Amino acid sequence: MTDTTATALVCTKPGDSSVLEVQDVEVSPPGEGEAQVEVAAVGVNFIDVYQRQGVYPMETPFVMCSEGAGTVRAVGEGVTDVAVGDRVAWAHPVGAGATTANRPAKDLVPVPDGLDLETAAAAMLQGMTAHYLVNSTYAVGPGTVALVHAAAGGVGQLLVQMITAKGGKVIATAGSEDKLEIARRLGAVAAINYRETDDLAAAVRKANGGNGVDVAYDGVGKATFDASLDSLRPRGMLVLFGGASGQVPPFDLQRLNKAGSVYVTRPTLVNYTATREELLERGESVLGDLAAGRLHIEIGGRYPLAEAARAYDDLESRRTTGKLLLIP
Ligand code: NDP
User: Fold this and answer.
1) pLDDT on residue 1
2) Which of 19, 77, 160, 268 is packed most tightly, with the most Cβ within 10 A?
3) What sign for the dihedral angle of Cα 47, 134, 149, 228?
4) Residues near ligand 1 with C-beta < 6 Å?
5) Per-residue DSSP letter, 222
6) Distance, CA 6 to ligand 1 centroid (Å)?
């Protein structure tokens, strides 16, 4: 096999979306343990933004994006997990933003019959994230009361659905009336516009009959962290899983005592898909639920690779709901 030319979304240096360029790149034949995939759709995620900005330091230039789905066109030596012609999806590692890409075969999850590749691409990173957050970081069950910030966003919409499906109750927050309506439609019992609320923790407690919540899912970070902490019941858990508004500054651990012996954790997907077995369990569960209609993903926008900068500007400026995709 010889090198193939692909069109790729390249981050040329750390910065805002203006550092992104679409370039032709050479893709070598798949190496040992790799599969070469013709990419059908690429997911847009906040981790791409953190990598582009240099918040997560990267050596530039690099091919952007971690999530996608496509069809295996060739496999390298030693690959047994997938075969040529398989439809696959993945959440990791970076380098997926291209028409053709070599992916580690161990990171590929089979896409079930009946599920289109765009939905599969949309589901992998945010879907498996919501899955571990409600099953493994905190075991949501019947009667669990959960606070979900940015509930109309990508991870947010999936959290609301998964918590509700387990018999839990969601108190949602979002930044506009349209977004609150999305959260209510998905099953949230209360929805609060945090851009118009002076005392967010008091509003959350009021929505929960004066009590603190069992668990707060916070991917907004800097802007909501204090309110999340103050919204918990004694021994409740704050799950800080992102920083869409900025990273949370260092804080005094005594605050956990004052808030009622509460827990704070800062989980990340890679630790919850650490083995192939765990990756397949989560990935197949999420894709299977989508194929069966038990879970729904709103595709909030599709952008050609050449318009990726606009997709990221839209995501970062809070204009979007649901999931954004790049179509190579
Ligand atoms: P979203 O679609 O949720 O977009 C982010 C949302 O956050 C916005 O739409 C906005 O909703 C809200 N927001 C609040 N303040 C700001 C701000 N200052 N700037 C931008 N957005 C703001 O994104 P994702 O679903 O892709 O990701 C959500 C979070 O989950 C991110 O922090 C991401 O890093 C994290 N994440 C973490 C993972 C992990 O394993 N730890 C894996 C995947 C994602 P509104 O207008 O309603 O306020």
Assistant:
1) 73
2) 160
3) negative
4) 45-47, 125-126, 129, 150, 152-156, 174-175, 179, 219-220, 223, 241-245, 267-269, 315-316, 318, 320
5) T
6) 30
Within-domain flag for 135: no
In this structure, the residue with its CA closest to atom 32 of ligand 1 is: 242
- Looking at this predicted complex, what is its ipTM? 0.99
Say how far apart CA 77 and CA 33 lie, in whole Å: 6
Looking at residue 3, its pLDDT comes to 86
Residue 243 C-alpha to ligand 1 middle, in angstroms?
7
Mutational pocket test of ligand 1: of 318, 319, 326, the residue with most ligand atoms within 8 Å of the beta carbon: 318
Cα–Cα nearest to 221, from 15, 65, 50, 92 = 50
Residues 18 and 59 in one domain: yes
**Can you give the residue range of the structural domain that contains 226?**
141-266
Domain assignment of residue 213, yes or no: yes
Distance (angstroms) between ligand 1 centre and the Cα of 315 equals 8
Domain harbouring 16, CATH code: 3.90.180.10
Same domain, 9 and 119: yes
pLDDT tens, position by position, 180-219: 999 999 999 999 999 999 999 999 999 999 999 999 999 9
Residue of the nearest CA to atom 2 in ligand 1? 153
Chain mean pLDDT for the chain: 97
What's the pTM value of the predicted model, to 2 decimals?
A: 0.96
Residue 2 banded pLDDT, cuts 50, 70, 90: confident
State in Å: Cα 217 to ligand 1 middle: 11
The domain tally of the chain equals 2
Any domain includes 82: yes
